[in-house]
Write a structure and sequence with these properties.
The complex is a heterodimer of chains A (about 350) and B (about 350). The longest helix of chain A is centred in the middle third of the chain and has 16 residues, at about 185-200. Chain A has helices at about 5-10, 60-70, 90-95, 110-120, 125-140, 155-165, 185-200, 215-220, 235-240, 260-265, 290-300, 315-325, and strands at about 15-30, 35-45, 50-55, 75-80, 85, 95-100, 175-180, 205-210, 220-225, 230-235, 250-255, 270-275, 280-285, 305-310. Chain A is built from twelve helices and 14 strands. Chain A has two domains: about 5-240, 3-Layer(aba) Sandwich (Rossmann fold); about 245-315, Alpha-Beta Plaits. Chain B is of the alpha/beta class. Chain B folds into two domains: about 50-155, abc type-2 transporter like fold (3-Layer(aba) Sandwich), CATH 3.40.1710; about 165-360, no CATH class. In chain B, β4 (about 120-125), α5 and β5 form a beta-alpha-beta unit. The radius of gyration of chain B is 26 Å and the shape is elongated. The two termini of chain B are about 50 Å apart. The chains are: A alpha/beta (about 350), B alpha/beta (about 350). Chains A and B meet through α3 of A and α7 of B.
């Protein structure tokens, strides 16, 4: 695509990076307080991958996206989209990105077709192919029969699908999806995942923010965990899971804790780790189902009653809890409101 | 039941108290309405400029002429200030010229002989509301008081103009202001609240294109509103446009005022964050401009401080220009109006671009 990217491709064995962020920070100040929404974040996104920004509400994901999509200026640090600097070359960047923001920017009074046509014109798409392109996109998300209905009559899922394909109308190099499935029912979410995966097959790099682990796990090649504006960890899903004490997770809920039973469990060298969190005992082991009988025996031996027992492979959320000591839904700093919109 | 009602009351009241702009407007507006409505509509019309002249260039010593001019200059009702500002012209020709230029609203021409068969001729600018009647009754009562029995011959140079025609021309301008201020501005704020504007900003569309597009669409909407009322005036109120040139001049005036007010509204709506604040400020502004524009009632009837607002009110110049074109058919009278409207629109466009641009940053 351009000289800088291809030279990097020659230099390293990993695929070329398409987004590069260097020590990026963003501080919001108002009368009463100062919020560090993004705090010295550096990472790269590779060409063609689906990259997930995962973190609780208010972690700074949207702020990061707003900086990368040229809506906000960073307080310090630099960011590049391809060869372009987000501060110095916003116009060039706007030509190669597609953005589906968290809060809808569809015009509810216009029809689906008109909304797409409007953006097609803003994005300077060849007028001779625009009509065909709009029909193709509507077909892609099964909205052809609603093409001429006003968007305000659409369901949440339909609006979201329309907004995603609108962001894709000019076949951008990079597609930013900010919480693409927030507030949608499971059916619509699955449908949107299919579309996102399909768009990625067209060699579009996709940056996705979400606070749903299942979404990140299903879609993303690599995930960056962010919390309180900081980048906690960036890796592939596989590697992230391996960063946990290995094996399966066995979660046993108990009514009372028994120190002797705990000591007996910890003494068992087939179990990689035994931890107590509130009224749960968390055990990880290489092969969960095989060690389960002996664990149960230990409980019985100490006549410790169990309220529930689950055995599962570790999820991304477990990694997040492991990294931060709390769940993704627990929430972080300030709410992810429409801050910065209009005049901040 | 009470608890629910109290909760709802408290919620609403809390929001009200948290918004000083709304409080001020709610309390301040009715008072301003009272002051402005009361003064703009109820005032006595005084200081009407009229001209007098004598048929005979050397007849200024004519006793009827001298006594009548003196009486006209002091004519007043009850304890009000004098009704006429009398200018004495040296001859009929210069007086008629001043009348044609709009410097005086009526001209009285006295005959050389004070006999019953010599008429006193009165020409009145009939395109204003109430003023023609005041002039006519004033002049005839002054002549009657002086004891002369000369008949008064009245010519209304623009014919009989009904109030609906006088007012109808004002409504053209009001339509432009109202639709733009209420419809256009609120639409812009709503677009911003819905994040639609933010959607533009991640596309490569130029900032100047956004501003140009918004001004263009607003101007066309405002122009259409004005043009429709213009047509209604023609077909319902029965105004007549005498030539193609006048018709095009009307369109040009409508266009200048439309682009000016649209730009002003864009600048206003960029400064307000909520629809409610914007709406209350703009409703007030709209009223101020309309009441002092002379659309309802002659500007001569307003107290001086209100007339001061009139001189900086673009609506006044627009209405004056349209009345000159439509009711008087006098293109020569609108020179100053056009200058004022160009200045207003120029300032408004600059202001609109600068402030709107700031919201896009």
């Amino acid at each position: 695509m351009d000289s800088r990217i291809s030279s990097e491709e020659r230099d390293s064995s990993t695929p070329a990076s398409i987004i590069r962020i260097e020590h990026l920070s963003k501080v919001f100040r108002d009368r009463s307080r100062t919020v560090k929404a993004v705090d010295d974040v550096s990472f790269e996104v590779r060409k063609g991958e689906i990259f997930g920004l995962l973190g609780p509400n208010g972690a700074g994901k949207s702020t990061l996206i707003r900086i990368l999509t040229t809506l906000l200026q960073p307080t310090s640090g630099r960011a590049f989209i391809g060869p372009y600097d987000v501060v110095r070359q916003p116009e060039e960047i706007r030509r190669v990105i597609g953005v589906c923001p968290q809060n809808s920017t569809l015009d509810p009074e216009l029809t689906a077709y008109d909304n797409l046509e409007f953006y097609g014109n803003l994005l300077d798409i060849d007028p001779r192919i625009l009509d065909a392109r709009i029909r193709e996109l509507l077909e892609m998300v099964n909205l052809t029969d609603r093409a001429h209905a006003p968007v305000r009559t659409f369901s949440g899922g339909m609006k979201r699908k329309l907004e995603i394909v609108r962001a894709f109308i000019h076949k951008p190099l990079i597609l930013f999806l900010d919480e693409p499935t927030i507030g949608l029912d499971p059916e619509s979410r699955r449908e949107i995942w299919l579309h996102v995966a399909a768009l990625n097959d067209e060699e579009t790099t996709i940056i996705l923010t979400t606070h749903y682990m299942d979404e990140a796990e299903k879609l993303c090649d690599r995930i960056a965990f962010v919390d309180k504006g900081r980048l906690l960890r960036l890796d592939t899903i596989e590697n992230l899971k391996h960063s946990l004490p290995s094996g399966d997770l066995i979660e046993i809920e108990v009514e009372t804790m028994d120190e002797d039973a705990l000591a007996a469990l910890q003494a068992d060298n087939r179990l990689t780790s035994v931890e107590v969190r509130e009224n749960k005992i968390l055990i990880s082991a290489e092969n969960g189902s095989r060690v389960l009988p002996s664990i149960l025996e230990t409980f019985e031996h100490h006549s410790l009653p169990m309220a529930s027992i689950t055995i599962r492979s570790p999820s991304i959320e477990d990694v997040f809890i492991y990294l931060t000591g709390k769940g993704l839904d627990a929430g972080g700093g300030e709410p992810a409101s429409r801050k910065g919109r209009g005049r901040p | 039941m009470m608890r629910g009602a109290i909760a709802i009351f408290k919620r609403d009241f809390k929001k009200f108290m948290g918004n000083p702009a709304i409080i001020v407007m709610t309390l301040f507006m009715p008072i301003m309405y009272l002051i402005i409505f009361g003064n703009a509509m109820g005032g006595t019309i005084t200081h009407i400029p009229i001209g007098v002249a004598h048929e005979d260039p050397y007849g200024n010593t004519n006793p009827l002429f001298l006594s009548t001019v003196d009486a006209l200059a002091h004519f007043h009702t009850e304890d009000k200030p004098r009704m006429f500002d009398v200018t004495v012209f040296s001859g009929e020709a210069t007086a008629k010229q001043a009348f044609a230029d709009g410097r005086v609203m009526a001209v009285v021409i006295f005959p050389s002989e004070v006999t019953n068969d010599n008429v006193v001729r009165l020409s009145i600018d009939s395109s204003e509301y109430m003023i023609p009647n005041l002039i006519q009754s004033g002049v005839s009562s002054v002549i009657a008081q002086s004891g002369a029995e000369n008949p008064l011959q009245v010519s209304k140079i623009y014919g009989d103009i009904q109030y609906i025609q006088f007012f109808g021309v004002g409504v053209i301008v009001m339509a432009i202001f109202m639709t733009t201020m209420m419809g256009g501005g609120i639409g812009l704020i709503r677009d911003r609240e819905n994040g639609i504007i933010e959607g533009y900003l991640v596309t490569p569309v130029k900032r100047s294109s956004i501003i140009f597009g918004i001004i263009a669409s607003g101007t066309v909407k405002a122009f259409m509103a004005g043009f429709i009322i213009f047509l209604v005036d023609i077909f319902v109120a029965g105004i007549a446009v005498d030539s193609m040139e006048t018709f095009f001049m009307v369109l040009i005036v409508l266009f200048i005022i439309s682009i000016g007010i649209t730009s002003l509204v864009i600048s206003f709506s960029s400064r307000f964050s909520s629809q409610q604040e914007y709406a209350s400020v703009v409703a007030f502004l709209n009223l101020m401009l309309f009441m002092t524009s002379g659309a309802f009632y002659p500007v001569l009837g307003m107290p001086p401080w209100l007339r001061w607002i009139t001189t900086i009110n673009p609506e006044y110049y627009a209405i004056h220009a349209l009345r000159s074109l439509i009711l008087r058919g006098q293109m020569a009278l609108i020179g100053w109006d056009l200058v004022a409207l160009f200045v207003f629109s120029g300032i408004a466009i600059t202001l609109g671009i600068v402030t709107y641009r700031r919201t896009l940053e």
